[in-house]
Prior knowledge:
Helix content of chain A: 40-55%
Order of helices and strands of chain A: HHHEEHHEHHHEHHEHHEEHHEHEH
Radius of gyration of chain A: 25 Å
Oligomer: heterodimer
Number of strands of chain A: 9
Strand content of chain A: 5-15%
Structural class of chain A: alpha/beta
Number of domains of chain B: 1
Strand order of the largest sheet of chain A: 4-3-9-7-8
Number of helices of chain B: 1
Number of helices of chain A: 16
Shape of chain B: globular
Shape of chain A: elongated
Distance between the termini of chain B: 50 Å
CATH architecture of chain B: Beta Barrel
Distance between the termini of chain A: 94 Å
CATH class of chain B: Mainly Beta
Helix content of chain B: 10-25%
Strand order of the largest sheet of chain B: 1-2-3-6-4
Largest interface: A-B, 52 and 37 residues
Amino acid sequence: MCNKRLIDWVVIVPLLAIIAAPGLIQTAFEVRNRERPGVFEVFDRAPTARNLHDFERDLERSSLVLRVLRPWVQYGRFRLLADPGEKAVAGRDGWLFYEPGVRFVVERRSEPWQPGRAAIDAIRAFRDELQARGIVLYVVPVPGKESVYPDQLAWRATDAGVIVPARTAWLFDELRRHGIAAIDLFTVFRQLRGGRVHASPLYLAQDTHWSPQGAQLAAHAVAERILRSGAIALGNRRYRARTAAVDRVGDLVLMLQSPAIEAFVSPERVLCRQVLEPDSDVPYHDEPAAEVLVLGDSFLRIYERDEPGSAGFLAQLASELQAPVASIVNDGGGATLVRQELARRPNLLKNKRVVIWEFAERDLRDALDGWHIVSLDRSNSIPR
Amino acid sequence: MCESMRSAGVGIWLVLAGGLAPGCGPAAYDIEPSRDTHGTIEVTARLLEIPPGAIFERELYNYATVLKYQVLEVHRGKVNGDVIYVGHYNPARPRAQVADKLVPAIGGNLKTFHAGDVHRLSLDGAMLDHFSGGVLNKYAEEGADPIYWAVWTDLVRE
């Protein structure tokens, strides 16, 4: 009998301690830092469902125990179970994929597809506003890594090659129907990689973005198309270039927010083509008065504003055009936020002949802040 | 039984001591905990609203969101008008934990943004001079300008 009670207590007391410990630790920590214990914030607002939900979320966000333990639990899952967590998907050969990107490729779209319609309406309105100013718009949906390397995601897709997800195919059809110029990087990438993983992959293994080679290939395709159309002529600025190596920890690794995983995963070494101003060692830089304006998301930022600098899509495009470009870059904001920023900076439309609008294909469904029509009216008076 | 109770008690005190240990102190990017020395402008202002979708957890990218304030008192510097627009970096995180390699000089005691709360803010002018990442501006149609950059955000208890 005595033994049974002892066993009961041995189980109950540690269990209660485990339950109580995070709260006690948190309170002790906050008192030590002369802060008001967060637990009392429950009394600061009316006990509505929303306020209680917010309170619970705040407790979780500020929890010291969670902050300390979570990265190690994630590390354990990553090492022992090859599980990168909820927002990433482990592929083959150490490749990681972004879960929303995978869903974009594999999920069927519903009918009627409202986000798609909103995207088309926004693109049409933007094209019309630019056209009224004598500016040609080129839309450049960038393939997700999952579309270009489905074989690295699952062995069943070994022979799939580069795929065009149903939503993206729909977008291209709609753009064609409305007479909007689009540049198809899917075909470009398919031609290069064929059915195999190229020696220099077009996308990074641990990142959502393209490799320097992918950015360079895309810039080449875009430049070729614009020059062929006659919208602008080849410039005369002979940029130079040099090779720059960068060791890059992928955004999919950083997203896990576990220093132990970051230390475990080797950075990817990539060789970039850094573009330099003519007759100097000064890295390429944009010029707001250029004839070409490029709008886009982090696919424009990588290698350009990140290390090594001046080696991303923008610099490669300028190198191909032999002329500088102007740009607006907004991480994850390729759908609407870049146009909002353009509306705030109407001077950027001065002297423009071409606008290139890049966005990630998964933005068709997951765009930050959705797809909205943004009026450029404030720039109506800009002289050309 | 006494032994197991004693062990559990020791365990609880150990975890409490863990919470008080120096190793659990502020993050490496925390700046000097004083709003007076940061920014060029200092105001007390009421957060008028949080537009739907303006604040959320974002896994892949850092971002800043623009929020609208009613200025109650100007302590230092000068602002344009009674209503101002302020950019906050990664607003879903407590201000004390938000500093990182990209934006190292930022802080405050505010844990969560709630519409109607009063904040004491240290600000710098022109957000885009201080932050070049993604900006979520739900007030774009209102022509929000200038957008101040929040360096330090403390909650004011009324």
